[in-house]
Every structure is written in structure tokens, then in C-alpha cells.
Amino acid sequence: MTRDKSSSLHKVALLATGDEICNGDILNSNSQEIAQRLFSQGIHVGTHMSVSDNMTELKTAMQFLLKDHRALIMTGGLGPTSDDLTRQALSHILKRPLVFDETTWAAIVERLNRFGISPPPESNRQQALFPEDATIIPNPNGTAAGCMIKHMNADQIEQFIFMLPGPPVECLPLFDNVVLPTLKNNHFQSILHYDKWLLFDISEAEIAEKLDKIAEPFDCVTGYRFWYPYIEFKLHSNHPSDFDRLLPLIKNAIAPYLIGDGKMTASELLKKEIVKLNTPVTICDLATGGLLESILKTPDTHAWLDFTYNLENASSDLQIKITGITEFWQKEENHKNTTIEMSFTNKGKQESHRWTVPYRGYRVKQYAVEFISRKIYSFLISHRF
């Protein structure tokens, strides 16, 4: 992997709190989502940490992360129970007393009243406590308001500290509406040029070897994320001339592995095309065991998609029958490849195709869904529906 020769003074640290995360009871999806959204906006993400609901561990983690980062985003630990200690730990390390905010308490009381909880439990009062001089971030989706604190460290560098609630439905809107704009307004964006693509039908090792060799002479950073059956390839740089010269070379190299412009999965592209098509499509899927239907059928597409196990009574102009990946259903593991067969009947005219595809055990269903979506999408485009 090539490495950018410049370094950023504006890295953002992420701290997820909670025993349930450390014990593996729930996934730390907030940090993943936040990191992706920061990076896509040109903001460097530094260290990720998870820590349990323990006062000593919380303080140690906060102090460690604030040593080398200009911003710290913390998620979780803002609830009403005794193990929600994030605000208390931050108050201690910043040496700022917790101050009760009447406006936040009024919002908590009003929300609980709407749900038939009156009077509110006394324990909820701690959710209206914030370190002195914090800017409160109201939470329209829950009782745990967030906050932002500007802090001057020992080197007289201004740091930004954010406390956000743990549930993603509460955390991510506050991040999008307040945290991200604040970081952008305070010049945290340092990745000037950035692009990414989803690559299909190529292994991570194969494409990395090829692309890293192309990128080596340029002051750019390449990155890869395995997201079966795709490889997400990222390219970024702070040097416009290098980025502009490298970009066409990269696009030429990845062209055979792109579906559309490479910004969406095949199933996402197909769903958009079905809505645009505005005509019924009947699909007989005897390959994926219902997985294709569960992914393609959405509130937007369900009116145009009819899944059936028998095409004899189908009335739509376009009918598609899919069979294959029999090794998976027969539990045959010693295979490198399998087959997918598809027949397209369009206003009485039929064409059939058979492809050999890689067999990867239980993951073959995921591959099949994207492969089938790609073939249906290509059929719709080529036949100008």
C-alpha cells in the first residue's frame, strides 16, 4: 500500500463505551459509520477504542486519546442508569463540574410524559447534567442529549470533544447535523482529493497488487475493504497534480470490475432501474432460496416485482427464471465452481444463459444475488426497457 507523505494535525479519535460492546453483545456500528462519514468528507480518523462502563477505564481511555487527537467523539454512556458514567468521567478529566440544564430536563419530562411516564424517574435527572460550558446538542429521538466541549490542552491547542448517545438512531443524526458540520467549519478537512469504487469479481490480493504498482510513483494513498462479494477500493491524496495524473490510470485498470460507475452494488442499481422501468417484472428464483427477493423488494420496488415459483400464469411482459448453485443446497463442499442459469422471456421471445461462477460455501448465495442482479440490470439496459 502506498502511503501519503504528509501527516495531519487534525485527526479525530472515536471512543465507544459500554459493557455490551466490550462483551460482544452488540456490534459497535456507530464507530464504523462515523469513521466512513468522516473519511468521505476528507477528515482523518485516528484511533478507535471501546471501553467498558468503568470509571477508571473511561478516564484512562479519554486521557490517552486526547494526547494525540484534536477531536474526540464518544458514543454511549449517557443513559439514566448507574453504569452510564461517560459524563462523570469527562467532568473529572477536564476538571469541569457537572451543571444541571433546566431546558434539557424539561425536554426529558415532556418526552416521558408523551409515553405515559409521569412523573419521570429521578434517575433521569442525571441526563440533564453536562460539564460546565458545554454546548448542548438536543436529541429529538431520545432522552439522552449530547454535547460539545471546546477544551484547551496543555500545549494550548484547542480540542473538540463530543458526547453522543449510543443508539444509532439517536447518535448518527446528531453526528450528521452537528458534529460533522462543526469539524468542517473548524478546518478538520485535510484530505483534498478522494474517490472510491466497488469492484466485482476480483480478489483483494489480485487487485491490490495491480493497483498499488500503478499508484507507487504518485503521492497518493490506496485503501481496500473486503465486502463480499465486492472489494471497495479507495484513493485519496492531498496533492492535486498526482491525484489527477493517477486517476485515469486507475479508472482504466478497474474498468473490467465495475458495475455501472462502481458507486453502487448491482442489486442497488437494479432496484433503481426497476423503479425507472415502471413496468411489471416476474421472477422465478429457484437458486437463492428467497434471498434475492428479500433484497430486491422494497417499498419502492414491490409494486413492479412479482416473485413466483411458477411462471405459467405470469402476465407480465418480462419473465425471468433463475436456477443454479445446486452444490450449496445439496451441501457439497468440495467444489471450486458452480453454475447459474437464467432465462429471459420478453414478450414471448426467450433467451437463455449459463455461467460458471466461483463457489465459496455459504457465501455463494450472496455472490449469486449480486451476479444475478448484474445480469438482470444488463438485460434491461441492453434491451432498452
Please tell me about this protein's structure.
The chain has three domains: 12-185, Molybdenum Cofactor Biosythetic Enzyme, Chain A; 193-257, Alpha-Beta Plaits, CATH 3.30.70; 266-382, CinA-like (Maf protein, Alpha-Beta Complex), CATH 3.90.950. The chain is 36% helix and 26% strand. The protein has twelve helices and 16 strands.
Task: Give descriptors for this structure.
Maf protein; 12 helices; Molybdenum Cofactor Biosythetic Enzyme, Chain A; 6-stranded mixed beta sheet; globular; 16 strands; 385 residues
How would you briefly describe this protein structure?
This protein is α/β, with parallel strands linked by helices and 385 residues long. The protein has helices at residues 19-22, 29-40, 55-68, 86-94, 102-114, 168-185, 204-215, 240-254, 266-277, 291-296, 326-329, 364-382, and strands at 12-17, 45-51, 71-75, 98-100, 129-131, 135-137, 146-152, 158-164, 193-200, 221-227, 230-237, 281-285, 305-307, 318-324, 337-346, 349-358.
Contiguous runs where pLDDT drops below 50 for at least 5 residues: 1-8
Strand order of the largest sheet: 2-1-3-8-7-6
Number of strands: 16
Mean pLDDT: 93
Distance between the termini: 43 Å
**For this entry, what is the oligomeric state of its chains?**
single chain
User: Order of SSEs, N→C?
Assistant: EHHEHEHEHEEEEHEHEEHHEHEEHEEH
Write down the CATH topology of the largest domain: Molybdenum Cofactor Biosythetic Enzyme, Chain A
Number of helices: 12
What is the overall shape? Answer: globular
